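Researcher: Here's a chain I'd like modeled. Treat it as a single chain, no partners, no ligands.
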Amino acid sequence: MPTLTPAPGGYRSVFGIREFRPVFAAHLMSVLGLVVAEISLTVLVYRATGSPLMSALTFALGFLPYVLGGVLLAPIADRHPARRVLVTCDLVCAACAAAMVLPGTPVALLLVLRCALAFVAPLFQGTRNASLADIVGTGDAFVLGRSLLRMVAQSAQLVGFGLGGLLLAVVAPREAIAITAAGFLGSALLLRLGTRSRPARTSARTSPLAGARAVLGRRRLRALTLLFWLPPVFLVVPEALLAPYSAGIGAGTATLGLLMCAMPVGTITGELVAGSVLTARTRSRIVAPLAAAGLLPLLLYAVRPGALLVLAALLLAGLAHAYTLGLDQWYVDAVPDELRGSAMTLLGAGLMTLQGAGMALAGLAAEFFPVHAVVTGSAILGTAVVLLLLAELRAAVRGEEGLRNETALAVK
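Model: Modeled as a single isolated chain. Structure tokens:
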């Protein structure tokens, strides 16, 4: 793995970088706005149709177009200046949200607009993550910057839905969605005025599938990408099945709400501790052990535990997710500069899509097996998958090192 040097100051040092502050503020505005849009649009569609299926479909459409947008739009992230891409994406999303606000917008169009938001999202996120390396560098500041953006997204899930519910008690759903449009416009303004214009990373025109092949065709990069993608597929299983499991053990809605917060709280806490206390070298060293052990707390489900043990298992599984800070460094070191935007776009699209698939598969499995058995099985299978991926990554790194040694000898 690459040699890492810790940057003093931790998260505070990242906020000391002038360009990062508007990027962080823009991310906060757009994420909160999007959370408000999700809950408001779900309520709006339900009131218009009276159909629980249509309401659930509205929420699901936040996941489905991700993979399509991630694959088709990925080359744009490298072929055009990052600031232009980011501002354009924000303006497109603001226009979609504004169209939702218009009185009389039919439900079918509301769903199309929701798909458009999700379609553009992976390009925006991938371009922002790639440009983050230009703003703060590819060292420890990049890892901590990525961590801060992730924690904002996690916190938005905890706080945003609660605030959205309170907001809808005061204003109509369409008026709440207007806040989303304002958030995207504010984000576009911050990025346009607060960040520098930088040239595109490459002028080469490639097809979307060629970009995906360029990223996934590299053995080391493929193994790293799968290490980001696959563990969350198994990690979302207990979250997806919390409602039926809680009902099965006689837990009330208050307990269910507490359990739903457990894993996000553990994840945020783990990242804060890893980013604030550990050096970059230590974060790199704990990637393999934490990734390998991250799903093991879910084995507690084998004894069909009560709420307290489930809470502990979910917290521990969330804490172990701190390995992603070290994995971020490995990833940015492995990605060639000219592919960084495409790689980051594909990374985010695959992560979001596979998490949605994991939730659906968990529900399907729970139709045939007890919930506690499904969660236990996912922990066992997921741990086996992670161990295989770590072995593949180790072999890929050794192969690269051997090739470099052979090349050096040939030059001599």
